Amino acid sequence: MANVGRRGVRRLRELAACAAESKPFLTQAAPATDSDAAVVAVAAAKATTETKWKGNQGMNDINQAPAGEAGSEDRTIAMLTHLSGILFGFIVPLIIWLINKDKPEKAYLIDQSKEALNFNITLLLVYVALFVLTVVTLGLASPLTLLVWLGSIVLFIIAGLKANGGATYRYPVALRLIK
Question: Is pTM, for the whole model, over 0.70?
Fold first, then answer.
């Protein structure tokens, strides 16, 4: 990157100007060298990551929200909502969602409480199925319950950390019952 050249620097400046004005960046010719192409690619990636967050966009698991989007209080409550699943199950996410569901300024908190609620309902269904399976197999399925419990604790902690950082978190295995 040290040997970028004038053409790469010029294209980088053009790209930065286009990104600042929210215009598409179109060039007449292809980059002259691989280093020019690398500079343009890095600048394009940086410009796209600096675009404003608009909620859940597509299939991304984690979208980083800007600092002004979710306040510190909302992030802390979202973290506690995820972590509360360890002890209280779906009760705390349900209460948080019901309290805030009609407040558009709490969009981040609503989204995270719905996600925690969906995951906790999914866990409840899995535990019921595992209980039935354990009874039918005379206890042979009980280690699965322990594995599900340990996995859920790990996912609760990951979700809490991501929520505290301001990122929207999607559990990898959750039925989306509350939309």
Answer: no
